[in-house]
Amino acid sequence: MTQTKTPLRVAVTGAAGQISYSLLFRIASGAMFGPEQPVILQLLEIPNEKAMKALEGVAMELDDCAFPLLRGLVLSDDPRVAFKDANWSLLVGAKPRGPGMERADLLKDNGKIFTVQGQIIDEVAAEDARVAVVGNPANTNCMIAASKARRLTPDRFTAMVRLDQNRAQAQLAKKAGVALTEVQSIFIYGNHSPTMFPAFAQATIGGKAAREVIGDDAWLQGEFCETVGKRGAAIIAARGLSSAASAANALVDHVHDLMTPGAIHSVAVKGATHYGFDANVWAGVPVRTTTPGSYEIIEGYAMDDFAKSKIAATNKELTDERAMVAELLGT
Ligand code: NAD
Ligand code: LMR
C-alpha cells in the first residue's frame, strides 16, 4: 500500500531504555497511529557514549525490520534536535525505581529532566504538539514539564495511567472468569502510584454492574485496589526491573485512544476539579477524545463515600508531590 499522508514526527526520550525497546517497534509498525500513518522517529538519549552506542543498535534493528511506515530516524543527545517540529513527544526517559525504592526518591532527580524538556518542547515542537509523560513520578513530571510551557497550553500535556487501567481490567476479568473484553468502563483516578483509585463501581462485566457480578465488595475495596495499586512494585520484585513491555503497550493505547475521537479512557490531566482534585495537579480521570489529540473530562460519574475517601487520599499525595517540587515549578 502507498501511504500518502504526511509523516508524523514522534520524539521519544529514553530511547535506548527497556520501555523503548518494546515501544519503538510498535510505533513503527503502525500500532500507535494506524496502518496508514507514516512516522519519523526522533530518538533522544543522554550525552553518554554507552547510551548513544546502545541507541545506534536499536536504530539498526529498526532498519532491519523494514517497516513501510517508518520514514526516518533521528538519533540525538540534544533535546533541541529530538523535539524539533515533533507532533508527539513521548517522555519515557528517566531513572526507574529499583527494588525497595519509593517513588518519592525519584521526585527530585527525575523532576529536573522535565523542567528542561518542557521548556524546549514549548520552544521547538510543532504547532499541534502533544506530550505524553511516562517517566516516574509521571503525574508530577508532567506538571513540571507543563509549568515550563508558555506557548503550549496545559491540556497538551498528559501523563499515563493507562497501564493501571489495563491492569484493573485484567484483574476484574480474572476474578469474574470472563474474557477481558467483557469488562468495560473501569477507570483510574488520581496518581500513578499505590494511592490510585480503580473506580470499580462504574465498571461493567458483560453489561452488568461489576459489583453485582463480583458480589464481593470486601475484595473490590481491598485486594483488588491493592493488587492494581501495587502491581508496579510486584513486577519490580519479580523481575528485578520495572515493567517494560506492558508499559510500552499502555503508551500505545494511551496515544492511540487520544488520536481516536469517541474513545473513552483513563488519562492523567489537569483540571479534574469536578472529582475533587486540586486545580493544579495532573490526576487520572476518564476522558472522551473529541478531535485527534484533544479530549474532555467525563464528569458524570457519581462517587460514594468510599470512592470519595480514595480520591481524597490520592489527591493529597499529588498535592504533597507538588509541594516537594515547588522549587522546580518556581512557585
Ligand atoms: P531504563 O533505565 O531502561 O531506560 C531509561 C532510559 O532513559 C535510559 O536509557 C537513560 O539513559 C534514558 N534517560 C535518562 N535521562 C534522560 C534524559 N534526560 N533524556 C533522555 N533520555 C534519558 O528505564 P525504563 O524501564 O525504560 O523506564 C523509564 C521510566 O518509565 C522510569 O521512570 C520508569 O519508572 C517509568 N515507568 C512508568 C510507567 C507508567 O505506567 N507511568 C510504567 C513503567 C515504567
Ligand atoms: C509500574 O507501574 O510498573 C511502574 O510505574 C514502575 C513503578 O515504579 O512502580
From TrEMBL:
Binding-site residues for substrate, renumbered to this chain: 97, 103, 136, 167
Keywords recorded for this protein, A-Z: NAD, Oxidoreductase, Tricarboxylic acid cycle
Q: What does this protein do?
A: Catalyzes the reversible oxidation of malate to oxaloacetate.
Write the lineage as a comma-separated list.
Bacteria, Pseudomonadati, Verrucomicrobiota, Opitutia, Opitutales
Q: What is this protein called?
A: Malate dehydrogenase
UniProt-listed GO biological process terms: malate metabolic process; tricarboxylic acid cycle
Q: Where does NAD(+) bind?
A: 14-20, 110, 117, 134-136
Organism of origin is Cephaloticoccus capnophilus
- The keyword NAD belongs to this UniProt entry's keyword annotation: yes
